[in-house]
Amino acid sequence: MTIMDAGIEDVYKTRVTGDVQAIDRVDPTVWGTEADGPVDAATLAAHDAKGYHIVEGLLSPAEVQTYWQELVRLSSDETLKADERVITEKKSGEVRSIFEVHKISELISELIRDPRILDRAKQILGSEVYIHQSRVNYMPGFKGAGFYWHSDFETWHAEDGMPRPRAVSCSIALTDNYPFNGGLMVMPGSQRTFVPCVGETPEDYYKSSLKEQEIGVPSEHEITKLAAEHGIDQFTGPAGSALWFDSNIMHGSGNNITPYPRSNIFLVFNSVENALVAPYAAAKPRPTFIGSRDFTPITR
Ligand code: 6CS
Ligand code: FE
């Protein structure tokens, strides 16, 4: 059953058939104000305009080392190998991502409460927040497969039942991000346009989409239009930097054929005022390790 069966109006219709029309976003990008947290007015304005901002040195080199060692520990934990929260690379079988990592790792459970992170998320979303999704991405060297262009919100709306794009992601680099090792590319300002995708959501689609997404990706025509209008920025920077980006910004990354891994901790904060409902375009919600349905606000 989708939300449509309940007769609730869907502002961001997607997974449609036939031609699509881009939809102007009716929601803000930034919901809070300068007075609500650590982000200064200029940075808040930049995030509002571009849909992202970068915090250099969010983690100190010593902290990076600590979390890097945690990632290595997790990826070599034999008990985790069979866990459905561990996603492997389609070709190499190497660990690609580990979901719900804030519940698996004590260290990362503390990180989501760190004021440098939690207070920023609350300010951008203008409310109490909870973790919609957490994952560590390994993007190993030589064989790390990238992620084709997409809007996270399109998937979270269609498959998890997220009503509005009132969520923000924080990708913390644990290895140096170069232009050549699969650094995330974003289209600045594209968060103000919702691009519906063509194609019905297959049953249990997450089992393949987290390895390689085919449904829920915009057409080349729409991507070309967005790139022409907004250009493409790339997130590069030393380990410890963090990219904060809007749930609906168009983004993607290339394959990593270099010897240098591009590993990160990826935290998605959703507003408690934007709690998930029934999926807007899928038969049933994805498992809670991908789209949490515990809306309890994060507190220190
Ligand atoms: O489907 C998802 O929820 C995940 N997929 C991608 C490519 N980005 C967002 C999220 O981690
Ligand atoms: Fe994404």
From TrEMBL:
Q: Which reaction does it catalyse?
A: L-ectoine + 2-oxoglutarate + O2 = 5-hydroxyectoine + succinate + CO2
Q: Which cofactor does it need?
A: Fe(2+)
The reply on keyword Metal-binding is yes
Annotated TM spans: none
Which enzyme class, named as a word? oxidoreductase
Q: Does the keyword Metal-binding feature in the UniProt annotation?
A: yes
Which keywords are on file for this protein? Answer: Dioxygenase, Iron, Metal-binding, Oxidoreductase
Enzyme Commission code: 1.14.11.55
Offer an example of a GO molecular function term for this protein.
Answer: oxidoreductase activity
The record's similarity note reads: Belongs to the PhyH family. EctD subfamily.
What role does this protein play? Answer: Involved in the biosynthesis of 5-hydroxyectoine, called compatible solute, which helps organisms to survive extreme osmotic stress by acting as a highly soluble organic osmolyte. Catalyzes the 2-oxoglutarate-dependent selective hydroxylation of L-ectoine to yield (4S,5S)-5-hydroxyectoine.
Q: How does it assemble?
A: Homodimer.
Protein name (Swiss-Prot/TrEMBL): Ectoine hydroxylase
Organism of origin: Amycolatopsis acididurans
